[in-house]
Amino acid sequence: ILTFITIEVERIAEKRINPKRMQRKIKKQLKNVGSGTKAQQALKLQYEQGKLERRTRSREHREEESARKFELRQEKRKEKHRGH
Fold this sequence. Notes:
Order of helices and strands: HH
Strand content: under 5%
Shape: flat
Low-confidence stretches: none
């Protein structure tokens, strides 16, 4: 004869969300609302476009600077191997 033991299954309580994570989530949701006047939205759009332009300009400048430094290093190497 087999006897089975009844085991009480405890339901896992709903996980508590980390308060900081919850605040970040709420902040993100509020940010996506897109409130403000048309003038404020226009200013924000202008700011975002300026930010994109600034990024591209700075990237180009950084690439030019690295190319210039590379050329300078190559010149120095050539000078060292030139002899007296």
